[in-house]
Design brief:
Acetyl-CoA carboxylase is a heterohexamer of biotin carboxyl carrier protein, biotin carboxylase and the two subunits of carboxyl transferase in a 2:2 complex. Pfam families: Biotin_carb_C (PF02785), Biotin_carb_N (PF00289), CPSase_L_D2 (PF02786). It is an enzyme of class 6 (ligase). The structure is a single chain. This protein is an alpha+beta fold. It folds into 3 domains: 5-104, Rossmann fold (3-Layer(aba) Sandwich), CATH 3.40.50.20; 133-202, Dna Ligase, domain 1 (2-Layer Sandwich); 208-448, D-amino Acid Aminotransferase, Chain A, domain 1 (2-Layer Sandwich), CATH 3.30.470. 35% of the residues lie in helices and 26% in strands. The chain has helices spanning 12-24, 41-45, 64-74, 90-98, 108-115, 117-126, 142-152, 178-193, 250-267, 297-304, 308-316, 395-408, 418-424, 428-432, 439-456; strands at residues 5-8, 28-34, 48-53, 78-80, 102-103, 156-160, 169-172, 198-202, 208-217, 222-234, 237-243, 270-280, 283-290, 333-340, 352-353, 356-358, 365-369, 376-377, 384-392, 410-412. The strands form 5 sheets. The protein has an 8-stranded antiparallel sheet, sandwiched between helices. Strands 3-2-1-4-5 form a 5-stranded parallel sheet. Strand 10 (222-234) and strand 11 (237-243) form a beta hairpin. Helix 4 packs antiparallel against helix 5 (108-115). The longest helix is centred in the middle third of the chain and has 18 residues, at 250-267. It is globular, with a radius of gyration of 22 Å.
Length: 457
């Protein structure tokens, strides 16, 4: 039986994004929300709304029982988890399917496999994806770590097998610092994820972060939708994303795209996924796979014309992929700016009431946001409040349009990261596309240093 009502197990702009795609397909939506999100835009627009708990995510958006109960009460026949929260929780996906509700996401076993970094690396290697040199799996004692590090060469990177977001990661420049830094990484990992299992890999000096969007039907057919460049990051959090990458040739795009699509076909992967690589000196190295929709999916939609959320819903409904690889045409350039409610340079959170809101517009300008004048941004969740996405026939045209759109975007009542993006568009390295994953933090450090020197003079 076809999906007729989707429960959206998320909040903010992604909940609204899913609602819009569902309504365009003639599918009803159910919004679940905490007490802090009672006035959220997606809650107002959904066909049904259910409060599932207090502001704390652990008691609302991460509450398995409350979400399943809401689905049963409202008669939802599918659940879309968006990104974050429960989107990569294999146990929750199992529970959803055990209740005869369609899970709009990958098979639970694939979420489980790719969510464990050690297992993901083994799986990726077996599927033919290029790997960063490192340990074959988890390393349990310091003697073994020293052997592995000596073999691959310093500097090395100690990484937690669970979790993400940069926690449980330490760069080890030399053997005499190995034990101290690994213990620090283990402590961070245990505190954040309850698991201090570590593995080691070669530390790449100055790479770019390149990721490929993939889609599978779960029955051995898969495609890729090209790459995104997400190298402008701060503390491993993406700030600015673009597609295609300024440094990837069409030849490498199709070669690597073919490799990742073949890997997903072999896995019989279902739905949307993103395979992330570090790229340095023309070589790709697998780092992880995200078994969900990405925040930055709109740039892929812009250059392919494909609605990724709509495709997710179709695949979960048992349908075939709507396109074949040869049908996909990459056209133009797209950039996304993540707009956060925070100080643009200190990054201190800035929740509060939106006093005035004017959304940028014009040709090929898209804003994904649940903001409106009078809305109060709660302090309990991620600080991202909007995504500004622009498209142009060329990268240069796209940058010009982005500059104009940022000038038009007005959010008053809270601090936002709009001034940061405006400053980035003045930097020659950003304009030329000559940046790596280290660039933004180094630029911010230099900027802070210059400001301190100016204030002291």
């Amino acid at each position: 039986m076809a999906i007729s009502r989707i429960l959206i197990a998320n909040r903010g702009e992604i909940a609204l994004r899913i609602h819009r795609a569902a309504h365009e397909m003639g599918i009803e939506t159910v919004a679940v929300h905490s007490t802090a999100d009672a006035d959220a835009m997606h809650v107002r627009l959904a066909d049904h709304a259910v409060c599932i708990g207090p502001p704390a995510a652990s008691e609302s958006y991460l509450n398995h029982a409350a979400i399943i109960s809401a689905a049963e009460i409202t008669g939802a026949d599918a659940i879309h988890p968006g990104y974050g929260f429960l989107s990569e929780n294999a146990k929750f996906a199992d529970i959803v399917e055990a209740h005869d509700i369609k899970w709009i996401g990958p098979k639970p076993e694939h979420i489980r496999t790719m969510g464990d970094k050690v297992q993901a690396k083994k799986t990726a290697g077996a599927l033919g994806l290029p790997l960063v040199p490192g340990s074959d799996g988890a390393v349990s004692d310091f003697d073994e770590m020293r052997e592995v590090a000596a073999e691959i060469g310093y500097p090395v990177l100690a990484k937690a097998a669970s979790g993400g977001g940069g926690r449980g990661m330490k760069v080890i420049p030399s053997e005499d610092q190995l034990e101290t830094l690994v213990k620090q990484a283990q402590n961070e990992a245990m505190a954040a994820f309850g698991d201090d299992t570590m593995y080691l890999e070669k530390y790449l000096g100055n790479p770019r972060h390149i990721e490929f969007q993939v889609f599978g039907d779960g029955r051995g057919n898969a495609i890729h939708l090209g790459e995104r460049d997400c190298s402008l990051q701060r503390r491993h959090q993406k700030v600015f994303e673009e597609a295609p990458s300024p440094v990837i040739s069409q030849e490498d795009r199709m070669r690597m795209g073919g490799i990742v699509a073949d890997a997903m076909a072999t896995m019989e992967y279902r739905g949307a996924g993103t395979i992330e690589f570090l790229w340095e000196d023309g070589k790709f190295y697998f780092i992880e796979m995200n078994t969900r929709l990405q925040v930055e999916h709109p740039v892929t939609e812009a250059i392919t014309g494909m609605d990724l959320v709509r495709e997710q819903i179709r695949i979960a409904d048992g349908k075939d992929l709507s396109v074949k690889q040869e049908d996909i045409v990459f056209s133009g350039h797209a950039i996304e700016c993540r707009i956060n409610a925070e100080d643009p340079f200190t990054f201190a959170p800035s929740p509060g009431k939106i006093e005035y809101y004017h959304q940028a517009g014009g040709m090929h300008v898209r804003v994904d946001s649940g903001l409106y004048a009078g809305y109060t941004i709660p302090p309990y969740y991620d600080s991202m409040i909007a995504k500004l996405i622009v498209y142009g026939r060329t990268r240069e045209g796209c940058l010009m349009r982005l500059r104009r759109a940022l000038e038009e975007m007005v959010i008053q009542g809270v601090k936002t990261s709009i001034p940061l993006h405006q400053e980035l568009l003045k930097q020659p390295d950003v304009l030329s596309g000559d940046y790596t994953i280290k660039w933004l933090e180094e630029w911010l450090a230099e900027r802070a240093k210059a400001e301190n020197a100016a204030s002291e003079s």
